[in-house]
Write a structure and sequence with these properties.
The protein is α+β, with helices and mostly antiparallel strands. The protein has helices spanning about 1-10, 35-45, 65-75, 85-95, 105-115, 120-145, 155-165, 190-215, 220-225, 225-260, 285-290, 300-310, 315-330, 330-355, 365-395, 395-410, 415-420, 425-435, 470, 490-495, 515-530, 570-575, and strands at about 50-55, 60-65, 150, 440-445, 450, 455-460, 465, 535, 550, 555, 560-565. The structure holds protoporphyrin IX containing FE. This is Cytochrome P450 4c3.
Length: about 575
C-alpha cells in the first residue's frame, strides 16, 4: 500500500515507470561494474535535466542535478538525515562516524569534530603537509623510473592516510615514537600496513556500492554468506586493526604526557593556550577525544539546541503552550516558578536523551571517527590522481602552475600556509579538476519533510540524491563543459554563477568538514610534484576523451590514473 501511495505521489516526476518488486528500477543499472557511470548518464540523457525518479529496490529516490534543484536540498537545516538503506552498508565498515550518523547524534558529533578542522589548526597542518608532500615527491621520483607509466592512486592513498594519521591523530607514522604504528602484522612492515589499509578501504567502498545495487545483500546474514561478505570481514579486520593501533599509540602518548606533567588527562597545557572556540589548539582531535576534553555541550548550549533543532519540537511546543497559558491565567510569581520548572524539565529531558545516545558519557566515541577519517582520505587521494592526469594532459596549464610554484618558492620569509595560499593558479587548477571530476559525485538525504523544488514538490520519505557530476556540466553555468579551463574560477568569471553550480564538497549544514584541509593538502602535493618532476600522460590516459571514468562510490579512472614522470631540467630543479 505504501509503495502504491509513493508511486502515485511520484507520478509527476520523470523517470523509469514500473518499479519491480525488490529490484525497483535497479535493473537499468545492472551490467558490467566498470559501466556504472555510463548507465547513470544514459538515464540522465533520457529523462533529465529535471528531477528523475528511480526506485532503488523498495526505496523511492529522486535524482537532482540542476543547481536550482539541489539548492533546496543541500541548504535545508532540516534535511540532514542519511538514508539508512544506503548508509547501512557504509556503517558496516566504518561504524557510526560523522558520515553515517543522522539526527541529534550527527549534530553532536559534528560540533565535537569541527574544531579539529578550525582554520587555526590548519595553520599548523600546512607545515606538515608541505614537509610530507616534499618527501612524497622525492620518493616518487626515486621509485618510479623516468618515462614509465604508473598508476598514481595507491601511492597517493598511502600518502594521504599517513598525513591524516600525523595531523588529526598526532602520530607521525614515520617516527620511531609511533613504533612505526606498532609491531608489523604478519611480517608486514609499516609501509605495507598503510598500503594494506588503502587496499582494504578501496575494496570496502566497492563492496558498499555492490550492496547498494544488490539490495538483498543488505540483509546481513545473507551478505555474510557471499564471497563479498567474506572479503568484507577481512577488510573490516584490517581497518579495525589500524584503528586500534592508532588509538593505543595515542593513549600511550597521553599517559606518558600525563605522568610527565600530571593532570591525569595528559592534556594540560603549561601556557594555557586556547583558541577562539576554547579548544586547546595544540591538541589534535584524537588527543581531545581520548583525553576526555572534547567540546561538550554546556547546559546553555543544550537549551539553545532544544530551541533550534527540528528533531525536538514536541518538548518545545508543549513547553511554549504551557507557558503562554500560564502567563494569561496566573500571577507573575507563579509564571516565574513555572518557567524555572520548565527549563529544568527541558534540561533533564535533553540530558537523558544524550545519556541514551552517549551511554559512556562522552559525545565522541573515537573509534568510528578514526575509521571515518581514514576512510574519507580516499576522496583526496583520488582527486589528486585526477589532478595529476589533468596536468599531464594539459601541458600549458602545468607550465603555468609550475611557474607560479617556482616563483613562490623563491620568495623568502613566508610561512608554509602563506606559501600555499599564494598558489592561486594551482588552486584554480584543483578546483577545475574537481568540477570535471567531483570525487563524491553523488550524495543523498532521506527526506523527513516535503521538499519544494522550483518546479515540483518531492514527498517526504523519499531518498533525494544530488548528482553533482552532472550539475558541474550544466552548460548554462559552464559553457563548453568538458573543456579543462582553470580560469573559469577567476573571481570576475564567478560573478553571477549560481552558488550551487559548483558543490564538490557539498554545501549547507552537512557539507564536507575537511574541505579546507583537503584543498591545502592538495596544493602542497601539486606544488611539491611540480617543483620536482614534469608529468606526462600514461597508458590509457592519453587524452581527456579517452579517460574511462567510472563511479565506485567515488569517481575513478578504470585501468588506473596513469601518468609518467620526467625529471625537470637541472636549472629548474636548482630553482626549486
Ligand atoms: C577532495 C577531497 C574531498 C572531497 C571532494 C570531499 C567531499 C565531501 C562531500 C561531497 C561530502 C558530503 C557527503 C554527503 O553528504 O554524503 C563530504 C562529507 C564529509 N567529509 Fe569530505 N571531501 C574531501 C576530503 C575530506 C577530508 C580530507 C576529510 C577529513 C579530513 C573529509 C571529511 C568529511 C566528513 C567527516 C564528512 C561528513 C560531514 C557530515 O556529514 O557532517 N573530507 N565530503
Amino acid at each position: 500500500v505504501d509503495k502504491v501511495r509513493k508511486t502515485s505521489m511520484l507520478a509527476h516526476v520523470a523517470g523509469p515507470s514500473y518499479p519491480l518488486p525488490l529490484l525497483g528500477n535497479l535493473i537499468e543499472m545492472f551490467g558490467p561494474r566498470d559501466g556504472m557511470l555510463g548507465r547513470g548518464m544514459k538515464i540522465f540523457y533520457r529523462y533529465g535535466p529535471g528531477p528523475i525518479k528511480f526506485w532503488i529496490g523498495e526505496t523511492p529516490s529522486v535524482q537532482l542535478m540542476r543547481p536550482e534543484d539541489i539548492e533546496p536540498l543541500l541548504s535545508s537545516q532540516r534535511e540532514v538525515d542519511k538514508p539508512e538503506s544506503i548508509y547501512k552498508a557504509v556503517r558496516g565498515f566504518f561504524g557510526d562516524g560523522l558520515i553515517t550518523l543522522s539526527g541529534d547524534a550527527w549534530f553532536v558529533h559534528r560540533r565535537a569534530l569541527t574544531p579539529a578542522f578550525h582554520f587555526k589548526v590548519l595553520e599548523r597542518y600546512a607545515g606538515i603537509f608541505t614537509r610530507r608532500a616534499a618527501a612524497f615527491a622525492e620518493q616518487l621520483a626515486a621509485e618510479v623510473p623516468a618515462g614509465q607509466s604508473f598508476n598514481s592512486v595507491p601511492k597517493l592513498g598511502a600518502f594521504v592516510i599517513g598525513s591524516i594519521i600525523e595531523t588529526a591523530f598526532g602520530i607521525d607514522p614515520e617516527s620511531s615514537d609511533s613504533g612505526h604504528l606498532g609491531p608489523a602484522n604478519k611480517g608486514l612492515q609499516r609501509v605495507d600496513l598503510l598500503d594494506q589499509l588503502v587496499r582494504a578501504t578501496e575494496d570496502a567502498f566497492f563492496i558498499v556500492l555492490h550492496r547498494i545495487f544488490h539490495p538483498w545483500l543488505l540483509i546481513d546474514p545473507l551478505f555474510r554468506m557471499t564471497r563479498y561478505g567474506r572479503e568484507a570481514k577481512e577488510h573490516e579486520a584490517i581497518i579495525s586493526d589500524m584503528t586500534k593501533r592508532v588509538i593505543a599509540i595515542k593513549k600511550k602518548q597521553l599517559k606518558e604526557r600525563a605522568e610527565r606533567v600530571g593532570d591525569g588527562s595528559g592534556l594540560e597545557d603549561a601556557e594555557g593556550e586556547t583558541d577562539d572556540d576554547g579548544v586547546r589548539a595544540k591538541y589534535t582531535f584524537l588527543d581531545m577525544a581520548l583525553g576526555g576534553n572534547v567540546h561538550k555541550l554546556s547546559d546553555k548550549e543544550i537549551i539553545e539546541e532544544v530551541r533550534t533543532r527540528a528533531t525536538l519540537p514536541s518538548v518545545v511546543v508543549v513547553v511554549v503552550v504551557v507557558v503562554v497559558v500560564v502567563v494569561v491565567v496566573v500571577v507573575v510569581v507563579v509564571v516565574v516558578v513555572v518557567v524555572v520548572v520548565v527549563v529544568v524539565v527541558v534540561v533533564v529531558v535533553v540530558k537523558l536523551r544524550y545519556k541514551i545516545l552517549f551511554p559512556n558519557g562522552s559525545p565522541l566515541d573515537p573509534c568510528p571517527q578514526v575509521r571515518t577519517l581514514i576512510a574519507v582520505q580516499q576522496t583526496t587521494s583520488s582527486t589528486l590522481s585526477f589532478i595529476m592526469v589533468m596536468l599531464a594532459l594539459h601541458q600549458e596549464v602545468q607550465e603555468r602552475a609550475r611557474a607560479e610554484v617556482l616563483a613562490v618558492n623563491a620568495e623568502e620569509g613566508l610561512s608554509p600556509l602563506e606559501r600555499l595560499k599564494r598558489l592561486k593558479y594551482v588552486e584554480r587548477a584543483i578546483k577545475e579538476t574537481l568540477r570535471l571530476y567531483p570525487i563524491t559525485a553523488v550524495f543523498s538525504r532521506k527526506l523527513k519533510h516535503e521538499l519544494k523544488l522550483p518546479t515540483q514538490t518531492i514527498p517526504k520519505g523519499v531518498l533525494a540524491t544530488a548528482f553533482v557530476y552532472q550539475t558541474h556540466r550544466d552548460p548554462r553555468h559552464w559553457p563548453d563543459p568538458e573543456r579543462f579551463d582553470p580560469d573559469r574560477f577567476l573571481p570576475d568569471r564567478c560573478v553571477g554563477r549560481h552558488p550551487y553550480a559548483y558543490v564538490p564538497f557539498s554545501a549547507g549544514p552537512r557539507n564536507c568538514i575537511g574541505q579546507r584541509y583537503a584543498m591545502l593538502q592538495m596544493a602542497a602535493v601539486v606544488a611539491a610534484l611540480l617543483a620536482k618532476v614534469r608529468l606526462r600522460p600514461g597508458e590509457g590516459c592519453e587524452s581527456q576523451a579517452a579517460l574511462h571514468v567510472n563511479i565506485d562510490i567515488f569517481l575513478c579512472i578504470e585501468g588506473g590514473a596513469n601518468v609518467r614522470l620526467e625529471p625537470l631540467e637541472a636549472q629548474a630543479e636548482a630553482e626549486a
